[in-house]
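Obj.: predict assembly geometry.
Materials: sequence records (below).
Method: joint structure prediction, all chains together.
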Amino acid sequence: MNDKIIWIILLMALITYLTRFPMLLISSRWEIPDWLRRGLAMVPVGVFSSMTIPPILFHMREGAWSPEYLVAGTVSLAVGLWRKQIVWALVAGVVVIALYRQAVGML
Amino acid sequence: MSNMSGSFALFVSGMRQIIPVAAAGIIDGIVFGLLARQAGLGVTEAVLFSLLVNAGSSQFAAVGLISQGIVGWPILLSTALLNARQLLYGLSLGPRFQGTPAWKLSLMAGTLNDETFALKATYLDAGGKPSLSFFAGASVVDYVIWNASTFAGAWFGAAFTQTEAYGLDFAFIATFLGFLAVNLLTSFHVKVAACTAAVACIGYALGGGTAAVIVGTLTAIVMGAVSDER
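Observations (raw structure tokens):
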């Protein structure tokens, strides 16, 4: 087994725990300033849009820009907004891209 | 004695109520296990992720980076940024547990993820009394489902070869689009998402994926902190 991977997993577990426990403890004992609360409230939207939109817009396949991620991504986001469940966005995105590749015949 | 049976009833109630929420994670867990194998990890490593980290989005991102041959600090950075939203979960639950001993909170924090938080918040908003037993019941079931489905995906994952034909290279992005969708709660959120995306694209063009996430997230935090809009 790869030692480096094990270290990464352990450090990820530590970092993850640090995002879970300290803030729970602090906010159970003290008041949190409003501006910090408002800033943190935008973290999910910030992280998820910056992890998805650039790779979709800059997607290359076989050396050229390809619209396949844009097509599948649009459907995936729409389904996510409609169903309000992450798993349906996942299923829709994967199905659309598989169908798209069948249709374009790039397989 | 009545107190004992009361907390046991709440424990069972938590176990029951998390099922529809956690069941949706079965496919995510299977896909995670599968992608972990595709990235070159073994079954043990794939399952260790779910056992020890137990935070779907950061696990997906880590495996995505590993499949590109990146094993190091970018994984830890993306873990910190992705899981920073759990700071919010603590922030919103903490005030409900003012009298709870720190060691009990430290246990509760161990399984504070998207699914368990969603259920806890819904339960408390519906007027439920803050109960560690209820949360423990929910957490146990969520944890078992996530790990069992990871194991199933990892076990059968090696047999899967044509990932591109099945569109699995898009699974990461599609999952995160789902997360984005459920977080677009108000028009202000949409505005922040749009500005973040624009800044992130510049970051992406200049410095790649990690740079995009850093500048994008900072943009969102600053917009939230300075704005009066909700």
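Conclusions so far: Chain B has two domains: 2-183, 185-229.
To do: check interface contacts against the pulldown list.
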